[in-house]
Specification:
mainly alpha; disordered C terminus; 243 residues; 0% strand; 4 helices; elongated
Length: 243
């Protein structure tokens, strides 16, 4: 079982937390100071290398050409905002026209491609129909010419020969033989089943006949024994119930 959490343990954890917090604050302050020093150093470097020489040059030009310097200064201060607005407007218009042109180009290309696909589909349909018609005409011409050959030529074999030749020509002979063989096997099986049933019926009749012959029935022999005559006397006409 874990030991209970005491007050001293809580104080120790609080002290460690405060130490870590103070260390983190000190580290953050150190990083901020380093960043400030870095920015200040870069700013001083830019001021010493760029701004100060530019300002000194501006002062020298202003002393030598005061009127021109004043005109350029006022013009730059008044024109910087319109120029910035113009540049932003030009960029927006350029992007809008580029997007619009791309959209129109894509839509136009899609429409043209769709029209071309429709034309291609029509052409393919026409070629498919033409190929089917040509194939059907070839088959009809071949079958008709071979039929006339088998019927009119002395070397012909008649309609049966024409049929066999046509089946061989179009590769249908094996398929028809397979179907006829399966049908023949089914028929043989049916006929065999019928013979089996007839054989079973004949065997059953023989068995019943033998059972009948071995039964001690009064009708077993053609001669009726005298002791059985009483059983086969017909009732007289005076017996009751005889009309």
């Amino acid at each position: 079982m874990a030991a209970p959490f005491s007050h001293s343990d809580a104080e120790e954890l609080n002290r460690q937390f405060e130490e870590r917090k103070a260390h983190a604050n000190a580290e953050m302050a150190r990083l901020m100071d380093e960043a400030t020093l870095l920015v200040r150093g870069k700013t001083e470097q830019v001021g010493n290398d760029v701004l100060r020489p530019a300002y000194q040059g501006f002062q020298s030009v202003a002393k030598e050409y005061p009127t021109t310097t004043l005109f350029l200064t006022v013009f730059a201060l008044l024109s910087i905002i319109p120029v910035a607005i113009f540049l932003i407007f030009a960029i927006i218009i350029l992007c809008t026209f580029i997007l619009g042109a791309v959209t129109v180009a894509v839509m136009s290309a899609g429409a043209i491609i769709g029209i071309a696909a429709s034309i291609l589909l029509f052409v393919l349909s026409f070629t498919t129909g033409t190929a089917a018609f040509a194939t059907f005409a070839y088959i009809s011409f071949t079958l008709t010419s071979r039929l006339l050959h088998h019927l009119s030529d002395k070397d012909g074999n008649g309609i049966s020969g024409w049929l066999d030749e046509s089946l061989k020509r179009f590769g249908l002979e094996k398929a028809l033989k397979g179907r006829s063989s399966s049908y023949g096997s089914t028929e043989d099986h049916t006929l065999q089943g019928g013979h089996d049933d007839a054989r079973f019926n004949g065997t059953e009749r023989e068995r019943l006949s033998e059972e009948w012959d071995h039964t001690n029935h009064p009708y077993q022999s053609s001669q009726v024994k005298p002791e059985h005559l009483e059983e086969y006397k017909f009732p007289s006409a005076d017996a009751p119930g005889i009309m």
